[in-house]
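Feature request, filed as a ticket because there's no other form

It would be nice if the structure record came with a short human-readable summary line next to the tokens. Right now we just get the raw output. Example of a typical job, pasted below so the devs can see what we mean:
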Amino acid sequence: MVDVRTLPVGEDNEDRVTLDDLAREGARRMIAAALEAEVDDYVSSFADEIGEDGRRLVVRNGLARERKVTVGSGTVPVRAPRVNDKRVDEETGERKRFSSRILPAYARRSPKVTEVLPVLYLHGLSTGDFKPALRDLLGEDASGLSSSSIQRLTEQWQAEHEAFRTRELRFARYAYLFVDGVNVGVRLGEDPKLCLLVVIGVREDGVKELLAVEDGYRESEESWSQVLRDLRDRGLNAPKLVTGDGALGAWAALRTVFPAAKEQRCWVHKTANVLDALPKRLQPRAKSLLHEMAEAPSRADASKALERFRDEFDAKYPKAVAKLDKDWEQLTAFYEFPAEHWRHLRTTNPIESSFATVKLRTKVTKGSGSKKAALAMAYKLLDSAQQRWRRINGRELVADVLAGVKFKDGIKVTEDDTTTQDEKVAA
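Raw output as currently delivered:
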């Protein structure tokens, strides 16, 4: 099992920027959702008050003008929903007005809004902690975020996750899959942690798409088989290559559900595993050689780097070398695909970097919770993350991969190459 807190945020600057953008976009969406829930709660609480014309006195009234609000993750645009309240205060004779407790009128900076977002995410996971946490964050008069309004919000997320997990997948084709399982520190009854099984696919147009967010028992073969069979039954085509951690039960499941798919082991995970078998004083040199293997321009060059590693470490640290030998074929599977795709295929980084956010959200949960609510929370966070995932490089070559075009060391094998090779063999 991988602990994402120990892994690098990303292979390159692209991933670091993605996380910054994700924080701002997540804040914007969650503030908007919380404001909608607050207004719905306010309007429904006065649904029985009817005017002389037989119409409700309190109704929604569109959206206010957009304004910029600075929160902990940056400045985000917000359009707050408006309320038309026709009730009159009997003592003063003045019209009553709706005032948001989350985002007061004219507010431009609200650190408490940022702090309340994890509470919104985690409601349902630790229900008993919700009211005191809300009181501490927003004060005793925080009536805008009542338990009922938050409950409606989490129910909406759960409904969206249910629709996501039953949608048809036959309308697109996927060349690559990234699979990983991450333990999230939420206690669910007798289970110590929730294990999330995640699948991301690369479509024919090069776009990365979230395909599955499910719970599983310790990343077992049975759990992964259920996830992959469900994807297949909903129309997912057999992928050409699947990238994941070598410790997953997903591989046995993959060989049953999609037996023709090639397997690529994640170099980030493998590097960490190999370094664990070496003393710290040798790890910088070992890491340099491991980087040479992963970044080698051809499979032959990668094998030469492996032999240099073997010469230096096999005598005293055979376990480190054995970890590479064990999965060498799967570590170098990416050489049979376009070179433009290699940087994407070598690691499960899209999942790792996105799960760093999930870890932050669930880290603060202390009570037992609902598995359904936890899955919905993880789905919403990853769904938000995928809006920022960049298409893979060389996306025009994905169609070739799906068509079964052969590649050797990242270069397309043409008919002339095949003929030349056949002639060499005959000679």
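Something like this underneath would help us a lot:
The chain has a mean pLDDT of 79.
The longest strand covers residues 174-184.
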